[in-house]
Structure formats: structure tokens, C-alpha cells
Design brief:
The structure holds 2 protein chains of 2 kinds. By secondary structure, chain A is mainly alpha-helical. Chain A contains 15 helices and 3 strands. Chain B is mainly β. Chain B has a single domain, classed as CDGSH iron-sulfur domain, mitoNEET-type (Ribosomal Protein L9, domain 1, 3-Layer(aba) Sandwich). Chain B contains 1 helix and 3 strands. Classes of the chains: A mainly alpha, B mainly beta. Chains A and B meet through helix 5, helix 9, helix 13 and helix 14 of A and helix 1 of B.
Chain lengths: 380, 74
């Protein structure tokens, strides 16, 4: 593997790292990582955020515009304008947005606007998702409870639909929906690492190390996913499809970012990861089947196959050592751990239901349809 | 979580797989290597994984128990 930093284009200081590597069939695979393109606004709040980030309107108007949008919103969880505004504000803490000054990450007015959306978003989630109750805080009891909770989760059977019925175009849509999180897979949970200690921290790092390829960049889960996208003829640049995903897809990632970025919610991000891992290995087996049924080869299904085995490991560590270990050491975090787990199941369930409803009515789950399939390519 | 240690550890998770950490190789009876591809691996304990010797989560679908069910009089 060769990492070659170079200046690309006119913007000073923007580095594009080209990762060249060998895939399992010896075809070179390249991904370029750089700040995402600014999304298109979906209403007054996201327009004000975009304008503020690009420096085209004064930042001090922002709070009023965002506050008004929050007051006028029927349902913040499904609000395209507010979820996109929040997504853009969070992206400053991840890979950044093209033509936005990096220093704006900690701009007080932008942080204040973020808080204006976060507070009602968190309140809406807490109101709609009942926190399960458990009166024990041993790692044993918490782990057993989480496995029970996640096993009970019937959820929409999106994975079974993908396995048995999804068309080639629906599979591409599925990858587009997933790309918003998966091209930065594991990143929202990594915020928790310095906020944890002891057994829970070691567990989190053990899981994240595997997510990030165990020291081998070509095995990073986000990279393996980009390879699948590339095989489906999709753009592998982060954020390329933000403009076409619905609010609920943005809400799913925004919730993770909120849990991860607030130390107060460290229990919730731990619980979220536990529930996420516990509901991953079996669905991924079905997803892999769906792609195989549509003629994708083992290189393209590597991402799903990898998760069958990886998450069978991770769910044990996340349930017992991360979530259980955290509850045992800090019993007052138990409720937030359980809320985070329940919130993962609920919100990912809503996002999956959105896709399933669209597909069963034979329409696209996206805001705008994808361009017709270009011939599958190996190079991104 | 003992990867830097030389010793191998095997943790038996209740109603789940064995997690193996440390330097260990997996082979067929003929000595052919079975690639594990990760530092910590989960070995199938319920017998129903389709990726044996590794766990694929199937134990959850079949209600596999490692702990004896409590007897009615307990």
C-alpha cells in the first residue's frame, strides 16, 4: 500500500490522500478522502447553516432562523431541514465540508445553533422511545438483558427483503442509504474512547481496532464498503449521496453523533454500539445473500461476509465488557446505556421501515432517484 | 483483551461462543491453515454456524443455552 499526499485543485491546504491497495482479486482499488461537497439546503434552517458555513450571511442571524424552524417543525425526527442542518454542523467534527473554514468547528454561534436542534431532537427521542428498566447493574445481568432486548426486536424485515426480493436497483439504493454512516463506520462511537476507562474502554478499543482493520488500511470496514459501492457503480466519496437520502437516514447518523460527542451521553453511545453489534451478524448474512443472488462476486460481498464473523465477536464484547462493564463500574449510567440500545433499535427500525414501505409500494426510498446504472467498475 | 500477552485466553460467553485471544493458529486435521483474519475470534459452540469453526450468530436464532435451565423446584 502506498499513501501519497498531494495538493489537488486550487484550495490551499487541502490534502487528498490516495490510498492505493491490492484487493483480493489483485485489482487495484483506490479511495480518495477529502472534505465532502456542501449539500443542498432543504429549508430555512439548513439554508442558514449552509450560508453561515460558507460565510455568505452573518452568523448572528442563525439562532433566530434555526429557533423558528424548530418551533415550526411537526416532527423533528423526520424533519428534512433540521436533520440536514444538524448533519452539516456535525460534519465539521468529522471530515469537514469543502470551502468551509476548519476553525468554524468551534464557532460559538454554530455550537449554539447545534444545541437548539439537539435538545428537542433528544427530547423527541426520549419521549418516543421508552427506556427499558432493569434493577441489576452486573455485567452479567446487563449483557443478558441486552441480548434479550435485541432478540425481541422484530423490526422491519429489510434484510429478508434484500435476501429474497430486492432488485439490482434496490440494492444500489440500499448501499446509498447505508453510505451515510458506513463510509465513516465506527467513527461516531470512537468519540467515546477518552470518556471511558478500564474494562469498558479496553472493550471499545478492541472492537474499534477491528472496525478500523486491525492496523491494515485495506481491511477497514469503511474501505471494504467503498469497494462494494464501487462494484455497484456508485460514487465512493463521502457525502456524495447526502442530497438524496431522507431525513430519517440523516437522523440515524445524527443520533450517533449526538451520543458520541456529548460526554454526558457516554452511556448511550456504549448501549447504542452494543445493540448495533447484536443486530448485525444475522442481517448481514441476508444482505450478502441478496447481493450474491444479483450476481455480485465474493469481492463485492466481502463487506457483508466480514460482518457476519466480526460482529459475532463484537456483540459479545460490546454486550458484556463494554455496556455491562460500564454499568458495573458506573451504575448511574445504566439508564442511559439501556436508552442508547433502545434508541438504536427504534431509529434504525424506522429507517429500515421507510425503505421497506417505499419498496413494497414500488417506489424509490430516496428523495430523488439515482442516475441509471453505469457499468460496474473496479476503480473508484 | 490480552493481545500483547504471549498466553492464549479463551473466554466462554454465556449462551454464546468461545472468544479466543492471543497467538493461535487454526488448522484442518490435515494441517491446512484456516484463516481467522482478526485478532480476537469467536468459535462456534452451538454447532449450527455455517462458517465453522467460527461463530456466525446462529446460536441466537436457535435459542442455544450453555447454562442449565433452572429446575422447577429451584
Amino acid at each position: 500500500m502506498r499513501i501519497q499526499p498531494r495538493i489537488d485543485g486550487a484550495k490551499f491546504g487541502e490534502l487528498i490522500y490516495l490510498h492505493r491497495m491490492r484487493s483480493t482479486d489483485s485489482q487495484p482499488f483506490t479511495i480518495a478522502q477529502h472534505p465532502m461537497t456542501m449539500p443542498s439546503a432543504r429549508g430555512p434552517a439548513s439554508q442558514a447553516v449552509v450560508d453561515s458555513l460558507l460565510g455568505t450571511t452573518p452568523v448572528d442571524d442563525l439562532a433566530a432562523v434555526v429557533g423558528n424552524a424548530v418551533s415550526a417543525s411537526d416532527d423533528i425526527v423526520y424533519d428534512d431541514d433540521l436533520q440536514l442542518a444538524l448533519f452539516c454542523l456535525y460534519e465539521l467534527h468529522y471530515g469537514g465540508i469543502r470551502d468551509v473554514d476548519d476553525a468554524l468547528e468551534w464557532n460559538p454561534e454554530l455550537i449554539a445553533a447545534r444545541a437548539l436542534i439537539e435538545a428537542p431532537f433528544e427530547a423527541a427521542l426520549r419521549e418516543r422511545i421508552p427506556t427499558p428498566t432493569l434493577d441489576e447493574t452486573s455485567a452479567d445481568a446487563v449483557s443478558a438483558f441486552l441480548f434479550e432486548l435485541t432478540n425481541e426486536d422484530a423490526g422491519p424485515s429489510l434484510s429478508r427483503f434484500v435476501a429474497r426480493k430486492a432488485t439490482g436497483e434496490q440494492l444500489r439504493e440500499f448501499l446509498v442509504q447505508r453510505s451515510i454512516y458506513t463510509l465513516k463506520e465506527a467513527d461516531p462511537h470512537s468519540w467515546a474512547i477518552p470518556r471511558l476507562s478500564g474494562r469498558a474502554k479496553a472493550a471499545m478499543v478492541e472492537i474499534q481496532s477491528d472496525e478500523y482493520g486491525g492496523g491494515r488500511p485495506h481491511r477497514m470496514h469503511s474501505t471494504i464498503f467503498a469497494k462494494t459501492m464501487s462494484r455497484a457503480g456508485l460514487d465512493t466519496r463521502y457525502g456524495a449521496y447526502v442530497d438524496v437520502v431522507p431525513a430519517i437516514t440523516l437522523a440515524s447518523l445524527n443520533m450517533m453523533s449526538m451520543f458520541g460527542l456529548h460526554r454526558r451521553l457516554r452511556g448511550s453511545i456504549a448501549g447504542h454500539l452494543a445493540a448495533f453489534e447484536m443486530t448485525s451478524s444475522i442481517p448481514n448474512k441476508f444482505y450478502g445473500d441478496g447481493f450474491r443472488r444479483n450476481g455480485y462476486d465474493s469481492d463485492a460481498t466481502w463487506y457483508f461476509d466480514e460482518h457476519v464473523e466480526a460482529d459475532a465477536v463484537h456483540e459479545q464484547i460490546a454486550g458484556r465488557d463494554l455496556a455491562g462493564g460500564l454499568a458495573e463500574a458506573y451504575p448511574h449510567l445504566l439508564d442511559d446505556i439501556l436508552f442508547g440500545a433502545a434508541a438504536c433499535l427504534a431509529v434504525d427500525g424506522w429507517a429500515g421501515q421507510h425503505i421497506l414501505d417505499a419498496w413494497t409500494e414500488e417506489r424509490s426510498s430516496l428523495v430523488a432517484p439515482l442516475t441509471p446504472l453505469t457499468p460496474p467498475r473496479v476503480d473508484a | 483483551m490480552s493481545d500483547s500477552d504471549d498466553e492464549v485466553s479463551i473466554v466462554a460467553y454465556p449462551n454464546g461462543p468461545f472468544l479466543v485471544r492471543g497467538k493461535v493458529s487454526f488448522t484442518t486435521p490435515d494441517g491446512e491453515e484456516i484463516s481467522a483474519d482478526r485478532r480476537t475470534v469467536a468459535l462456534c459452540r452451538c454447532g449450527k454456524s455455517v462458517r465453522k469453526p467460527f461463530c456466525d450468530g446462529t446460536h441466537k436464532m436457535i435459542g442455544f443455552r450453555t447454562e442449565p435451565e433452572p429446575r422447577p423446584e429451584d
